[in-house]
Automatic annotation (TrEMBL):
It catalyses: uridine(44) in tRNA(Ser) + S-adenosyl-L-methionine = 2'-O-methyluridine(44) in tRNA(Ser) + S-adenosyl-L-homocysteine + H(+). Its main location: cytoplasm. It is found in: Cytoplasm. The keyword GTP-binding does not apply. It comes from Chaetomium fimeti. This is tRNA (uracil-O(2)-)-methyltransferase. GO terms for cellular component: cytoplasm. The keyword Coiled coil does not apply. It is an enzyme of class 2 (transferase). Its EC number is 2.1.1.211. Adenosyl-L-methionine (AdoMet)-dependent tRNA (uracil-O(2)-)-methyltransferase.
Amino acid sequence: MVFALALIPRPRNTVYAFEILEGLDEYRIRDTPPQPVFAPCIALAVAIVAPISPLAAHRRSRTRRMGFEPEELAVDSPAIVVEKASCNESATSAHEEETANWRPLFRHPCEFGPAMFGDVLVNLIQNPNINSSWLFRADILYDSAEPQECAAPSEARDTFTFNTPNPSFVGFGLQRCIVRRLIPRNTLRDNPLDQTCLIYESVPSSEGDVASVEKALVVYLPHVSVASEMPFYHPIVRGIAFLHEWDAAESRGCISISYLFFSQEDRSVVRLTRTALRLLEVIHKHGKGRLEGYQKRVHHDQLLPQARVQDTYTRLKQKYARGLIESWAESTDPEKHVFEDLCIAAFLVELWADMYGRGPFPGFVDIGCGNGLLVYILNQEGFVGWGFDARSRKSWATYNTKLDTPAGEEDTLRELVLLPPPVSRNGLSRLSGEDFNENRIHDGRFPKGTFIISNHADELTPWTPIIAAISECPFIAIPCCSHNLAGERYRAPAPKDKTKADSAYSSLVAWVEGIATDCGWDVEQEMLRIPSTRNAALIGRKRSANASDPDIQAIVEQYGGTAGYLESVIKLAASTASESRH
Ligand SMILES: C[S@@+](CC[C@H](N)C(=O)[O-])C[C@H]1O[C@@H](n2cnc3c(N)ncnc32)[C@H](O)[C@@H]1O
C-alpha cells in the first residue's frame, strides 16, 4: 500500500509547490492537498501503516509544534450557538425549512479578550489567504455596520446574488455584515466564492441583566446552496461559526468552532474536522500573538493594489507557466524560477502602467539577468528591453530575441561584465590576460530614463542606485546575497531604525536603501509576493525634493570604496570565458 502511494502521480496543471504562501507572514512550501480521487487510497494506506487515526496523527504533530490542544467536542454535544427558528420560517428552500443545527467541534481556552478576538477575525475576513494557500485574497463587496437580522443584505444586490436572510442567534445581536468574494489562486481549477461574514455580540437577556460572560460570535455563510457546488478550497459546510466567550472578572475565556453541516453524516468526515481544528488554531495563534505584542513587520501592497498585481500574475501564469516549466533548459528548479519571475513581471507590468500609462515605454535593462527568463517574459508582454550577465546560460538559446537599437539589431541577452564608472580603470591592461576581453565590459551607463532591473543581482545590488543616479534612470533592486561595493561578501550594519529586524537580509536592504537615499532617490519599498524570503524590493522612481547632483565618488568611499572590484570582475570574466570554452 505504501508502494501504491509512491506511484500516485502528482496532479499536473494546478498544484505547484513553490507558489506563494503568505500565511502568518512567512513563506512555506505548500503541501500538495489530497485529491478526491486518491483520498480513499491515502486514508487506507495511512490506516495500515499508522496505528493512530489520520486526524489524531495530524493533531499530535501540530500540538507538539504549537502547544495548541483543544477539547474535541463529542458528536452528541449540545449546540454552543443556537440559531433562532424565526428567520427560517420565511425560508423557502428545502434545507432551510429545517431548524439550523450548528454542531460544535472544538473548544480551547484563551487569554485574549473580545476586542482582540474581533480584530483577529476582521483581519482573517479581509485576508483569507492566511488560512488557505489556495486563495489569493478577498475582495470586499459589501460592509455594513447597520445590518438587519432576518433580512438579506439588500444594497449590494447588483454585485452578488444571495437572498438568504442574515440569521438571528439566541443571546446575540447582529453588529456588522461583510460580504466578501474569495479569489482563488488558480481560477482554472475553481471559481471565486461569495461569502457573507456576520459579526454578533451578546445582548443581555432582560433589562438590568448584567451578563457575567461576554460573548462574540462570527459566522461565515458561503453563497452555495448545494454541497456539490462548493469549491475545493472551502470546507463543504453550509456555515462556520466562531464563538468567543470572555469572563472579564477572571480575564479568561475560550474560543470554539461550530459547523452547520449539509448533512449530519458530515460530522464524521475527517477532512472537515481537520479544517475546523486548523481554523481555530489560527485564531488562537493570532490572538495570542497580539496579546504578546506581536506587530506586523511585513507590509505588502504599499505601492500597488493587491488585486491588480494578482490579477496580472494570474493572467501571466495562465499564459506562460506550463510552457516555461515544460521547456526548462537549466538544471535549477523550474517551478521556483518560473513563478518567481512571473510574479516580478506582474509587479513591473503594473508599476510601469502607473509610471508610464499610455505614454511611450522608455525601455528596460536587467543587470545580472541570469537565465534571462524575466527579460523574456517582459519582452513577450511587449516591453522593449534587454539584459546582460557575466555568464551566458543554456536558456538564452530560447529566450534571446532581437532588439532594434540605434547601433543596429542587437541580442536581448548579452554576455557582458559590468564595471561601473566610479571604479578606476587603472591597471586594467596590466591585470587582464588572454582570458579577458575588454569588449565584454559594460560601463553601466544607460540611455536616460531606461528602467534598471536588478533582481537578486548579488555583487551588482549595491551598485544599482548608484548607476541609476549616474544615468538618471529609475530602478528596482531586489536584494538577495550580501556584497559590498568591492564585490566581496559583506555583513551590512544593522538598520538604524530599531523597528526593523536586524537579520543579515534586513541589514542589507537597509544599507542599500541608505546608498540610494544618499544618491538622491526618494526610495519606496515593497514586499513582493514572490516565493522567496528575499522579497524586499527597493524602488527609485522619484528624486527626493532636495536631491542635487550627488557626489558619487564621495558616496562610494563613504560606503566602503571599490578596492578589489577590478580584480574580482576580471576574475569573473576570465572564469566565465574559460567556462564557455569547455
Ligand atoms: C544570483 S544570480 C541572479 C540571476 C537573475 N537575476 C535571477 O534572479 O535569476 C546573480 C547574477 O549576477 C551576475 N553578476 C554578478 N556580478 C556581475 C557583473 N559585474 N557583471 C555582470 N553580471 C554580474 C552573476 O553572473 C549572476 O548570474
